Amino acid sequence: KAERLLTAPSLAEHASKEILKLYGIPVTAETLVSTLEEAQAAAADLGFPVAVKADSAELPHKTEADVVRLSVTDSEKLETAYQEVVANATEAIDANRLNGVIIQEMLDLNNAVEVMAGISNDSQCGPVILFGLGGILAEVLSDVSLRVVPISEDDAWSMVNEIKGAEILRGPRGKPPVDQAAIVQLLLNLSDLANELGDRISELDINPLVVFPEGKNTGAVAADAFIVCNEI
Q1: Average of per-residue pLDDT across 65-82
Q2: 139 vs 108: CA distance, rounded Å
Q3: Which of 76, 77, 64, 78 is closest to 31 using CA atoms?
Q4: Among 208, 116, 143, 212, residue whose Cα is nearest residue 171
Q5: How far apart are CA 23 and CA 75, in angstroms?
Q6: Helix (H) and strand (E) counts for the chain?
Q7: Helix (H, G, I), strand (E, B), or coil: what is residue 71?
């Protein structure tokens, strides 16, 4: 089923998350909609607040294109957010390349940490797993660990512990530690994905991957994802 989804040069957020779910990687609760009425129904189902995002493979950097609205708290604000996101998206790209709009749950980031995980395809080594701090820190610090696929559980723990920002995961200055075991499991699941689909995927990015405090039974959730496919 996953290979059937890898048909385009690149996959937008919603389709990328469908691939992740097939490999046991938790993703945000969300619905892809194409009308304001569908957006209102999806938000009512999820419960406010919600996030509103344009979904297109041609918008890998949604914030820069101004096609994301966060913490939308009611139906009136949702209507405004939906209209703004669609208008900005169709100004940036051909309207035919817009898959729709994602109505997404807002994650509780209290004491959570944003990290990133992904796959790159090295011409010499093949698929490689990446892990590091996420959000804007991923670009600013370039603090990542790497392993060639497949990885073991020990490999995954080493990846978590060797980044320079590892102390952030352990709960500095009285903050609770985040669920590092959930990160390890996700990296192992990513390794399985890369093992099976590595020749089809050029790049896979999960950023941010939101990791919640230990004991919250939430673990780690992919809040955004993007896949670039190899030509076949």
Answers
A1: 98
A2: 23
A3: 78
A4: 212
A5: 34
A6: 8, 11
A7: strand
- Spatial distance between the Cα atoms of 82 and 221, rounded to a whole number of angstroms: 24
Measured distance CA(179)–CA(164) in Å, rounded: 18
Percent of the chain with pLDDT over 70: 95
Q: Does the model's pTM come out above 0.85?
A: yes
Give the tokens for residue 68. 């994301």
The CA distance from 52 to 63, in Å, is 12
- Assess contact for 229 and 11: CB atoms under 8 A: yes
CB atoms within 10 A of CB 6: 17
> What distance in Å separates the CA atoms of residue 152 and residue 173, rounded to the nearest whole number?
31
Reported as a single tens digit per residue, the pLDDT across 185-230 is 999 999 999 999 988 899 999 999 999 999 887 899 999 999 999 8
State the Cα–Cα distance between residues 56 and 117, nearest whole angstrom. Answer: 21
Residue 132 · residue 139 · CB < 8 Å: no
pLDDT tier for residue 1 given thresholds of 50, 70 and 90:
low
Structure tokens at 192: 């399985």
Residue 147: enclosing H or E segment and its boundaries?
Answer: strand 144-148
What pLDDT, in 10s, does the model give residues 86-135?
Answer: 999 999 999 999 999 999 999 999 999 999 999 999 888 999 999 999 86
177 preceded by a cis bond (ω within 30 of 0):
no
Exposed e or buried b for every residue in 106-121, given b needs 16+ CB within 10 A? bbeeeebbbbbbbbbb
Q: Which two tokens stand for residue 156?
A: 């995954």
